[in-house]
Design brief:
mainly alpha
Length: 354
């Protein structure tokens, strides 16, 4: 089975198998971020690092397959940043575009049997783009920077290719394509949940409504209702603990270059720990997301306390709406809302047919 991403369950491959992908992720994200920061343009580096997230889709694949996968995902990330940029400035447009990107990304990732992170990275890139000031970079520049990050990711994951023969690791197991009713339900669930999470956060006036959508998408990476509920709890607990770490890192404000180093270190730690313990990984994901977000949106001089408090509320909104979306649009054969109602009335649910 392919390695899991930071928004996957705690089970996964052995830690030793995660070291190389973790190193590749840190290098791919860190290279453009560091280069642009040294050149005095940290925001462009942060945009390029969004494209470099395509590196997360390479582990476990043979070199020909990872070459195609990273490029395909990269094209999706470029479309996502363009969609988010065009929607910026309108609450209704932001919620609608995030929902659309989430729905399409879930559909494509399930159809092509792409394991976690699946649809998460396109949602993250699109949602982040909606929060970047419109006058900071024109549309073409943003797409170009994301494409540059994709190119960096591609070269990083393919660097050892000429020196190896055959597979890059354990032979990947082909995942069967789910039935179309299951794919369509997952797509509807992801689109409705993330769009609603973004809209609620926007209406309330939270500092980073994109984080609510991302939290929802992270919780909905799998179909099973029990896994979704467990995942929501893990993300909420991990985020609460991660706030303390983020507070320490952001409050010290060591400067842009030091923050870049922290991003690289955190990216490595997240990829190394997530396969074993998702809650622990979220403790590091929280400061990582906050640091990347502040670099990408130019909020380095913003109010740290407001961002941290907002992160807690936005995560709670995303998790709650993910569970609600799961209850309203469950996988075929599951009836979570009916099961809960029967339990509350003291009756036992009959097995679902079909």
């Amino acid at each position: 089975m392919l390695p899991r991403h930071h928004d996957s369950p705690s089970e996964g491959p052995a830690p030793g198998f995660r070291r190389a992908p973790a190193f590749q992720a840190a290098v791919a994200v860190g290279l453009p971020l560091a280069a642009f920061t040294v050149a005095g343009d940290v925001q462009s580096g942060a945009l390029a690092s969004l494209g470099a997230l395509a590196v997360l889709y390479a582990p476990g694949l043979t070199y020909p397959r990872r070459a195609a996968r990273v490029l395909a995902v990269g094209a999706g990330l470029a479309v996502a940043v363009a969609a988010g940029t065009l929607a910026a400035g309108s609450q209704a447009a932001i919620a609608a575009v995030i929902a659309l990107v989430a729905g399409v990304s879930v559909l494509l990732s399930r159809w092509r049997s792409v394991p976690p992170p699946g649809a998460l990275m396109p949602v993250l890139v699109c949602a982040t783009a909606t929060q970047i000031p419109l006058d900071s970079a024109p549309l073409a520049t943003r797409v170009g920077l994301v494409a540059l990050g994709v190119a960096v990711a591609w070269f990083v994951v393919m660097a050892a290719g000429p020196f190896r023969r055959g597979s890059s690791g354990p032979a990947p197991t082909l995942r069967p394509t789910p039935p179309w009713p299951q794919i369509l339900r997952a797509s509807a669930r992801g689109g409705a949940g993330t769009g609603a999470a973004a809209l609620v956060a926007l209406v309330i006036g939270l500092p980073r409504p994109d984080w609510a959508a991302v939290a929802c998408a992270a919780v909905l990476v799998h179909d099973a209702t029990r896994a979704t509920v467990r995942r929501a709890g893990h993300r909420a607990v991990g985020t609460a603990a991660g706030i303390a770490v983020a507070d320490l890192l952001l409050a010290t404000a060591p400067g842009a270059l030091a923050l870049v180093v922290l991003v690289v270190v955190l990216q490595f730690v997240v990829e190394l720990t997530v396969a074993r313990n998702y809650t622990l990984a979220v403790v590091f994901i929280t400061p990582l997301a906050l640091l990347q977000g502040t670099l990408a949106t130019g909020q380095l001089d913003g109010h740290v306390a407001g961002l941290l408090a907002g992160r807690l509320v936005e995560t709670a909104i995303g998790c709650a709406l993910a569970v609600l979306a799961q209850a309203l649009v469950p996988p075929p054969g599951e009836r979570p809302a009916r099961t809960v109602a029967l339990r509350l009335t003291g009756r036992r649910a009959a097995p679902a047919l079909g």
